[in-house]
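Before any further analysis, backbone shapes were mapped to integers, which produced the following:

***
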Amino acid sequence: MRTRFGRVGAIRFVRLAMLATLAVGASLGPYWAAGRPRPVDLAVDRPQVRWPRTLWIPWERVETPEARLHRRLAALAARLERRPRLDAALVQFDVEGLAGAIERVLARVEGRAQVSVHVRDLESGHVLFDHYGDSALTPASTQKILTGAAALDLLGPDYRFATRVLARPGALVLVGEGDPLLSADDVRRLGEAVAGAVSVASIDRVVVDDSAFADRAAAAGAFDEDGPGFAYQAFTSALAVDFNAVLVGVEPRKGHVRPRVWTSPSCERIRVDNRARMGRKDTLTVRSVDDGDGTRIEVRGTVAQSGGSRRVRRRLHHPTLVVGCLFARALAETEGLPPPRVERGRTEPGDVLVAMHVSPPLAEIVERGLAYSNNFIAEQILRTLTREWTGRDDVEEGAEILESYARTVVGIEDGIAIENGSGLSRRARMSARSLVDLLAVAYRGQAEGTSVIDLLPVAGEPGTLRTRLRLSGKRVRAKTGTLAGVSGLSGVVTREDGTPQIGFAILINAVPDARLSARARRRIEDAVVIEVLRALDDYEAKRSGLVGADAGGGG
């Protein structure tokens, strides 16, 4: 039996189909919002059919921070792959002679230390010397090369930190982003600038917002939260000042029971507890401790009458409140008023920007951190790097970013373990070869003038190399590393015109109970570099025809 559908039946069928489609769409709304496929209406213009039809297409997913980071690392690695590498090795370079000379130097520490040395021509990648170059040892502060290189590639050499001041009725909000170089003078100038833009008399409080970093003070690794509070173990914070350290001066005073003690910076959040006494011997100790809402400087022992003044640096506790205190004082002094109170808080909708302090570009900050091996700068940079690329401030994720950079961009597969940004760690591991790999990637992939090689300390100039390798003619740029029983030196030897030519890395980890002082370890490192310089000069002489072509060994 045949059934006649008819025009009316067709119209009813179409209406029911459309209602069913809408009902299904409404029920799957949350499904689409969660990132599943969504419907898109396409007007299909056909003579027989004149209603919208539904076509399913994939929903465009929001890229996660992890995916964005991996994509960026892959792009950096691909950029390096596209850059051609010279195949020609150094012609007539006396590889055998260099090996013999360095082996004689290393024989001085045989049995007293684990040593990893790697020397390579940066242009061709030709290895000129290797002594257990793949051994994973404690790198100490030579690891800062990795932190600096990753920051330059992932944040950019022109990245800047901003410290902002916002206004709301009766209050000013001081907001930090982790500027490692913000000084007490910068804070004072910022306060003076704000005083020219607002009515100081109407301000009764200063709110400090350091929420850009999570509430974690000490970096992972060998950062002791107790002890004397050494400045090289300073706490990190989004609002920081003077590397989050305070300079403490102790001066003897004849005819007085106690010496004079002063601090810089100085404010209500830095309190001095001076119980030292004048005496014949010098047994002075200076310690900084948490004082609840500030820092207490404890001065103990005796100060010799005949001695001079002593100056030591100790870390700040609650540095954010110290920054707020300095800002409030600078603000009030412009009008001769009492400083407004300082409290922690957050920015709010409606806050209005009043003034801003902007840091130097990241390249300058990295250069300073490398020159003086500043742990605080390295840790502030790593926390910023983590926040910018993950949206979180997690110490483990920061270490993972550095390891991912090392593996994906540099190509380091094994023998690397990172705990923090500064290398102040007994658990960190790198090899001499991997450090030279870093330098080779910087040589090939980073912009001239702002590569991590360009920012390395120069032998004989201010910084950790000021007294070392002075006879090199400033042709050595390198990063030092020192812990108890650990030394390292990694960098480049340049041509006379300053062009990097040879990358090197030396890591020395003394065995337990070995009598191998830091000075002795540094002498070994310098002697190795001197032998590389001699071999390179000999090669350059041969290439220039100053020495017979048949002299020396082959390479």
About this structure: The chain has three domains: 6-57, 70-158+362-543, 161-359. Residues 1-5, 18-55, 547-555 have pLDDT under 50 and may be disordered.
